[in-house]
Amino acid sequence: xxxxTGNLHVMxxxxxxxxxxxxxxxxxxxxxxxxxxxxxxxxxxxxxxNFYMLGSMGLAAPIAFGVAIAQPARxxxxxxxxxSLLMQLGCxxxxxxxxxxxxxxxxxxxxxxxxxxxQSTPAAQARTDIVAIARASGxxxxxxxADEAEFDVLVARALTTDGPHVIGxxxxxxxxxxxxxxxxxxxxxxxxxxxxxxx
Length: 199
What we know:
Blueprint: E1 4-5, E2 8-9, H1 13-22, E3 29-32, H2 36-43, E4 50-52, H3 60-70, E5 76-81, H4 82-87, H5 90-98, E6 103-109, E7 112-113, E8 119-120, H6 130-136, E9 141-144, H7 148-160, E10 165-170, H8 184-196
Parallel strand pairs: 3-4, 3-5, 5-6, 6-10, 9-10
Antiparallel strand pairs: 1-2, 7-8
Helix pairs in contact: 1-2
């Protein structure tokens, strides 16, 4: 049974990352943010279309935005923690202004900077609502996933309708169980080759 915060179930990031990756059938690009977002993406199964960002906090959404602009026929997902997105909130306004139809940002919100010591983020205790910020920035398709079933519905919408989309997910504090290889050159080369292939 899942814990609840308000009317939102607290879910598990690794399990949802596996659900996301298992449902990708058309060479969609996935950009994993630093730390746990990245490690869970690695653990969900390595794909050449995955980009494992190392050491660049807050840049998953901007990098995914760039990929989406460069690859308009390809669906692109960013997996980002609440603390990381809070470092780059300006990217939401830029994304809204450019309105890439193929971009979705999944925000894992546990209210802490988990890999730097568990300090509270401004999103803790519902003081900062990232989905509301996305909407106020001009991203109309921004919603909280109330539970796992709604997460699947929101991902399916991101795969089949025009975006940009923001999907907020309240998650638990379980640490990532995998460690991404520390090989940025290999990741860059593999991802570039994958992006050169048609969708």
